[in-house]
Design a protein that fits this description.
Blueprint (H helix, E strand, L loop, with lengths): L1 H124 L2 H17 L7
Helix pairs in contact: 1-2
Length: 151
């Protein structure tokens, strides 16, 4: 009987040891799985972080490109407006200059007409000294004005 008890205890001890070994093996498997899950989680987080950084970089690049295009469009619009204003100013200045030239020509022609009218009247009346004075005035007008109608 004693032998039987010893065997029984030995089996029990061996069972206990097997159970302990089995429990340790399961515990190690669980820890390994947890570690693997943790590493997988970290890997996914790392991949997600890189994806977000890449997307943020792409957004920033697109934003910068858009801002640059907007600056270029604004500059182009300002340049065109400035060019148009300069052209308008040049046109206005040329117009004013032409108006002044035309006014001057009109005044010159008016004076020439008056001198011619006086000359005609004097010739009609045959007054010699006055004719010489008018001829002097005609010569002055010829020299002063390019478009003198008196030849």
């Amino acid at each position: 009987m004693e032998r039987h008890k010893r065997l029984e205890r030995k089996r029990k001890r061996e069972d206990d040891e097997r159970q302990e070994e089995e429990r340790k093996r399961w515990k190690k498997m669980i820890e390994d799985l947890k570690q693997e899950q943790e590493e997988e989680k970290k890997s996914r987080e790392k991949v997600e972080k890189k994806r977000k950084e890449r997307e943020e970089k792409e957004r920033n690049e697109m934003k910068q490109k858009h801002e640059e295009e907007m600056r270029e469009m604004k500059k182009k619009r300002e340049d065109e407006a400035r060019k148009q204003a300069e052209e308008w100013n040049d046109f206005r200045e040329k117009k004013e200059k032409h108006v002044q030239e035309l006014q001057q020509m009109l005044e010159d022609h008016q004076k020439q007409r008056e001198v011619l009218e006086k000359l005609y009247q004097l010739l009609k009346n045959q007054k010699g000294d006055e004719i010489k004075e008018l001829q002097k005035q005609v010569e002055e007008l010829k020299n002063k004005s390019k478009g003198c109608v008196i030849q």
